[in-house]
Amino acid sequence: MSLDIPSELEAEIDERITHYPVSKRSAVLPVLHHLQHHFGYIGEEAVEWTAAKLGLEPIKVLEVVTFYPGFRQEAPGKYHIRVCRTLSCAMAGSYELMESICEKTGIDRSGVNHHHPIAVSPDGKYSIEFAECLASCGFGPVCMVNDDFHESVADADALLKQYP
Amino acid sequence: MSEPTKTDLVDVQIDGVWHQFPKGTRLIEACRQVGVEVPHYCYHPKLTSPGNCRMCLVETGMPPRPMPGAEPPQPDESGHLPISWIPRPVIACANTVAPNMGVRTTGPITEGCRQGVMELLLANHPLDCPICDQAGECTLQEYSVEHGKGESRFRENKVKKPKNVDVGPRVRLDDERCIMCSRCIRFTDEIADDPVLGFTDRGSHTVLAVYPGRELANNYSLNTVDICPVGALTSNDFRFQMRVWFMRETQTIDTNCATGCNITVFSRQNRIYRIVPRQNNDVNSDWMPDSHRLNFHWIDSEARLTDPMVKVDGVHRPATWNEALSVAAERLASLSGSEIAVIASARMTNEELFMTSRLVKLLGAGHVETVPRQGEADGYLVSADRNPNTNGVRLVLGLENPGSTLDRVKSGIEQGRIKALIVLQENLVEDAGFPPELLGKLDFLLATYPLANPTTGLADIVLPGACWAEKSGTMLNVTGRLQRLNKAVDGPGQTREPWEIVRDLVHALGGGNGIYSVTEVFKQLAAEVPEFKGLSWGQIGDLGLPLIETGETIPALEREKERIAAGIIVG
Amino acid sequence: MSGITYQRGREPHPKEHRVVFRNVDRVGWDTGIDTFLKEGGYEQLKKALGMERSAIIEEVKKAGLRGRGGAGFPCGVKWTFIPPGNTKPVYLICNADESEPGTFKDRYILHQDPHQLLEGMIIACFAVGAKLAYIYIREEFPEAAQIVEKAIAEAHAKGFLGKDILGSGFDLEIYVHRGAGAYICGEETGLIESLEGKRPYPRIKPPYFPAAMGLYLCPTIVNNVETLCHVKHILEMGGEAWAQTGTKNNTGTRILCVSGDVKKPGYFEVEVGKVTMGEVINDMCGGLKDGRKLKAVIPGGSSAKVLRADETFTVGRGDDARQLTIWDIPMDFDTMAACGSMAGSGGVIVIDDSRSISWVLNNLNNFYAHESCGQCTPCREGSLWMKKITDRVVAGKASPTDIDTLYGVAKNIDGRTICAFGEACSWPTESFVEKFRDELVADTKPELEGALVSAEPLTAAAGLR
Questions:
Q1: What is the ipTM of this complex?
Q2: Considering the entire predicted model, what is its pTM?
Q3: CB contact (8 A) between residue A59 and residue B201
Q4: Is C32 exposed, middle or buried (0-12, 13-18, 19+ CB in 10 A)?
Q5: What's the rounded mean pLDDT across residues C398-426?
């Protein structure tokens, strides 16, 4: 399976690369962001495409992909939820929020571990993972749904209703 | 580069003793220079210094900085200022000497760091030394004994990582043993220009990896095994073959090309188990090509010649050396010199070539030549000249352009002008394009070689000649450096070193000699060949010495020099 | 703040002194450049472009502006570390990777007042001679990245960026670079490696001091968002006048972020050292929750050493020596350091008596184990080890000796790593064990001494409340 990159996407990526006139390698993160935004996650083909685009060995791209939790190597649900796990949010109830969302979406997190941080609902609509500090500690618990940010999330139902 | 002047030197106190070092000297090298070893894993003088292992942390100090208005510190009788010791340790690998600096490689701070780092390195280590090839030469083991606490407080489940991973055709990885020093990654990135290794995942879960479907296959891959300080990377070839402490080490040189990489041969009971590069900054730095390193298994081959043989009625029969040599002498004596050609080998040592020149003179042989071996240079350490001693042939045998006249030998045989051929340590059929039918025209063919081959198959006299690992002597590499080859193992059966064979043949032909050792050959050589004048065997040493200017350079070394000059590496 | 109205419920507290956060939550304010220009936007840039570069640096030095990212290093001094006679390109990077748990200030600048940052940044670039600059924004601020990119385009269109800025002959491009969820990218050399497209492994210093050998091994200045915003105000007020706010050696205003067990957590811009911990907790944040008592405060982001509620702190020397309770501590860099902690990034986490100390420490240890980059031995091996021990403490599977081991592991990290993450991850454990040993030991079981046990994976809300 090879990667189908729409020409507009590639044009955007090419423009991004120009932001790094000294070293194309600097564009690894932005290229991966574009690919993840388009495909939902970074698969093997995306790694290889990025490597070829920037003239790198694929391992040098994989090194980066596997380092950053912001890059997913597994397909998420239609709505990917990141619940802040760190102290202030935990004190404000983020573990309970996580449990509540999982319960309501039928997500089973028993298989989650360091290498597979994401759990997906049976219908594939929602996926969830814990994130470390999302930097809104005064207004916990906070979470992100795709690129949307939500603070003081008291009610999982109300949150999920926005993402049908 | 000029000698450092007085002003380029700084006074540094190491463990209470003052020394002087050039500015810019790394602390770890300063300590090494005065005989103080600072333990380390990630630091390697030929690679960049990431400072990641933290094993070389040492306590340092500088002269006290007085508060404004306070009395400045006064120097002692030796002229040194007092040292104010700093509680925060620094890495000796990347910090450089400074005037009036103090370094403590002992004491609670330094020792506490070492103990701490050792405990942490071993926390998730599998501690599988009994089944690990690295055991016996593992710095994790060594430093654990020297600097560890002897017990661990770690009571948790260890992190599980991939084991027995094929990272390439010759290298195998155990990620649980890896201490993430990154030496192998830096080697492949910086030296081999084949950046196929990397770290994936992060934190305590970090693993060394190759990209799925790619492999560490370059011709320098096994150097990663050498520089791996632990048993994470092991050699498929050597894996589980022999415990390192059972083996004998012989310092010698590689003979697969004209570079003459310095090597150490590891053997036990006359069998070679592995070869590793030996540091020589004028030849091979710390590295060697895999192709050369692994080209030793044929030494144990079934095809090895073990006895002299004389062809009687078309059939080779084993003979004693005396029998074989007297038959040879008799046959040769019946011919005139112009009918005899000698084909020697540029794989022979200077001493062997010197004895060959004696033989040529004694016989008045009409032709002497060697077999050329041209390949492609790899731009690193592999020379285009795959003979190790072409420069020796030039000097000792006096051939201006070795290997250029083989066609004349062929036509001489063809035309019947050459009736006898003495082939020393070469396989003319397979390596020099002599058709068997052509050799069949000869009246007499004598061949020495370690292995039975099509040429020896045609020979009237076959003599088992020791291979490179079974003999001693000197060779002259591509840059004109004279280096010593040292015998690592005995040849099988009645194998003799080629210089002995030629000596004995000269003797059988009535030439007098009183040579009983290779060092005596060298002495005579030094007396007769001008370039060697005044040299003694001992002077050559383990690292050799520059003898002649050839104008040739070794690409890997040139790049190393640039990196040293740019301050990227220590060198 | 006369003439400015703020959204209801988001009004600044009377004890605040808003400079950088002047426009945060302001009614009628938006991120567009026209709004910004109406309020005197980019006027300081115009002024700066007419000044000598050294004069700008001098003003920042006079102001005594200390970095707001965590280390509190004097910003003007940092700028002068670029080697004299440097011929390489100079880069400036704005560190907008806000990730220190407890800290949430840059978020509002990026989302609500991007031009303030850009103006400060362009002035800073002009001062240090940078012609290419990046804003490294954490991945979890996708909207901020868009807002800042739009602001950059607007500034470009108005001639505040690009070639020959306002006819000064000064060229500058600023680009947004998005991170990907790694706390270590807040460390400036880790950030630089990340910007080079590599794993963000912090570099050793020496030799890689960013001001001399930073991005692409060229001189590079890395400053926090809040710090760069202040540059604009320093130019506006003049360094000396700016230094009149705050206290000596702790000048200016800074944004405190308060979270945890208070009635009204939030962000407060105050003059440095002019408000006390007591005022922050009791006045600005409405005090502790009803019926609760203060147990501890982490005063400067999660890496700062914890302060125990009933401690007495001795600060000052000789005749100036005085005793402070936790309530009396003025919120400034030096006093907080004298109290054995740090003002850090200004993130104050308040912990009341309903919390299990083991649980709090374990939460932090989880964070640091997850965020350790794994490059150097002590932190790579030690951060996960500490997490595993506190996992067991929380799960009731630890023995009292494990607390000693925990402390020993932290001590084996502290001061021995490549970057400050070593301290960041060991200080919580060190300080929690030093100050709450009894409570931690109370969660252990003496009968487990020497037993080989390991914790189950931490259950969702184990130990919570």
A1: 0.97
A2: 0.95
A3: no
A4: middle
A5: 97
